[in-house]
Amino acid sequence: MQPIRVALGARSYNIYNGREILQELPDHLRRARMGKRLALVTNPTVFELHGYQLRETLSAAGFEVNIFTVPDGEEYKSLESAGQLYTQFAEALIERGTPLLALGGGVIGDLAGFVAATYMRGMPLVQIPTTLLAQVDSSIGGKTAVNHGELKNQIGAFYQPVAVFADTSTLKTLAPDQLVNGQAEVIKSAVVGDPLLFSLLERRMDEIKSGDERAVSSIVYRAAMVKANIVSRDEHDSGLRNNLNLGHTIGHAIESVTDFKVSHGTAVAVGMVAAARIAVRMRLFAQHDLERLLGVITSAGLPTALELNTADVLEAIKHDKKITDGHLKFILPVKIGRVVVSEKVTMDMIAEALTE
Ligand code: NAD
Ligand code: GLY
Fold this sequence. Notes:
Elements: E1 4-6, E2 13-18, H1 25-31, E3 37-42, H2 44-60, E4 64-69, H3 79-91, E5 100-104, H4 106-118, E6 125-129, H5 132-138, E7 143-148, E8 151-158, E9 163-167, H6 176-193, H7 195-209, H8 213-233, H9 248-257, H10 264-281, H11 287-299, H12 310-318, E10 323-324, E11 327-328, E12 330-335, E13 338-342, H13 347-355
Parallel strand pairs: 2-9, 3-4, 3-5, 5-6, 6-9
Antiparallel strand pairs: 1-2, 7-8, 10-11, 12-13
The protein binds nicotinamide-adenine-dinucleotide and glycine.
Nicotinamide-adenine-dinucleotide (NAD) is lined by residues 43, 45-46, 49, 72, 74, 77, 104-108, 110, 130-131, 133-134, 137-138, 141, 143, 153, 170-171, 173-174, 178, 181.
């Protein structure tokens, strides 16, 4: 597959995408004159499943791989974990020029990305995402972060990787619920910017769910392309990149009021459906396209509605960071493959859409 280019001038990079592509990583590192020492940051789950093999591949090619593991879980995406990595890096004499390879899902990618951005004021970062969500979303675009108290993803930096290696073969070991979770972001990408991806999801969902590698690789590729194109035009999230928040305003509120017991994918799916219902009422989006969206979300194994305390959800939305000067910027679909930002969405409209 042709690499996808994230075009950001001096910070441009490629996303390599496909089956078994980690075999090619040593050649890429050599061509990029990366040096022989590498810092591989991962967690024990991913190391067990894919890290041993990757270390073998790199060692056989003459690289010295220093492994640093962080316990598995969102709670370890913290300043404390970052601090422990800084200490371990210093003890291992990791230098500013040593490439950091972030092998794992979005938690490892965000945390290791933050460490790469800050250790010695910045080391080369290679993202090696191993969840569907990370391959289509979090590894692309340079948002790195840790959580701090109530501040989720609010301590961080924009720090672009030098390359992303999304090996879709690693997804074979993913728990089914994690695959479903990532599907919400794939569907979002299709609605935001790729009608052909949406048709692919409609036609090939059974193959995707059964893990057919060709089908999975094509959706990962197309979804990554949507994100890469948007990030290339709005690196710092000052306009167009907001489009990627389709379903997320309500989604984040649902996660927050349910104490994160509802998964991100489920929350985003319900948020997208609510946004689409609002858009239909505003005569921006066709009823037929809403039906198609409901069909794809359901066939992916995601819900289209949840029993929720609507008042709590509205309260959480009011505290959302995306409300600027009292105006809620809400992303609405206008057709499959195109969204707009609206400031006309009221709390009443959201309440109505959630209870429909
Ligand atoms: P995650 O990183 O916690 O991974 C989910 C689980 O899957 C973990 O237990 C992990 O160990 C396991 N896992 C990873 N790869 C595996 C594999 N190949 N086989 C088996 N198990 C595997 O969760 P996630 O959904 O990948 O990422 C969520 C995080 O991403 C959140 O912290 C979120 O804030 C962040 N995020 C960041 C961005 C961004 O732009 N930076 C965008 C979206 C989400
Ligand atoms: N996940 C949204 C963004 O990267 O902007």
